[in-house]
Every structure is written in structure tokens, then in C-alpha cells.
Amino acid sequence: MNVWALEKEVRIKHFLLEVIHRYGENLFSVHELPEQYRAIGIFKPHEPELSAYIFTFAQNTDKYGIDLYYPIAQHNIVGENENLSLEQLFSVFNIHFDLVS
User: Fold this and answer.
1) Residue numbers of the domain that contains 48
2) Are 83 and 32 in contact (CB under 8 A)?
3) Among 27, 49, 51, 85, which residue's Cβ finds the most Cβ atoms within 10 Å?
4) Distance between CA atoms of 74 and 10, rounded to whole angstroms?
């Protein structure tokens, strides 16, 4: 994924660069969501039904939000994880995707 080629705000690019730094370039794919400059979808290619929506709109300065999507829609967690620091974001992200950073 060429982060710099994406039409996204700097904080979204920063998040993606940190994903690559922590987990390598090929573990995740993105839904670019071109109509949403301040958001991106991310998933593992072999498990696309488990995904996350990372966003910076309606958040405080230098904060992120993350919505979590599961194979069973009733389990989705939307609107519960907002105004997170980057480290808090990765804490939720790691649990969601069963990762260790």
C-alpha cells in the first residue's frame, strides 16, 4: 500500500504508516473510501468480514475514532471508541484483530 498516494489527511496516513511499521506491509488491506478524506476502512485480506473503520472527523485534535465490524452485524461496535490517542487506538485495534504490537 502506498500511503502517500492516498487522498487522506495526515493523521490517517500517520496511522497507516504505523500499521506498516508494527505489522508489515502485507497483513492489512484498506477500503480507501475516496469520498471520506478523514476516514479509512482496514481489514485482513483473508478475513474481510472482520474490519475496522478509522476516522478523525468529529474528534479532538490529534485524536481518533474506531468502529469495529464483525462477521455477525449485531456484534459491531459503532460510536463507542472515540477521541482516542494513537496508542489507545492501537490498543483497541490490537484486541479487535487479535494482534500483539
Assistant:
1) 3-96
2) no
3) 51
4) 32
**Which helix (H) or strand (E) is 5 found in, with range?**
none
pLDDT at 34: 86
User: Long-range pairs for 61-66 at CB < 8 Å and ≥24 separation?
Assistant: 62/11, 62/86, 64/11, 64/15, 64/89, 66/92, 66/93, 66/96
Residue 14 inside a domain? The answer is: yes
Q: Locate 30 and state its grid cell.
A: 484498506
User: How many structural domains comprise the chain?
Assistant: 1
Instruction: State the pTM of this model.
Output: 0.92
How much of the chain, in percent, has pLDDT values that exceed 70?
Answer: 99
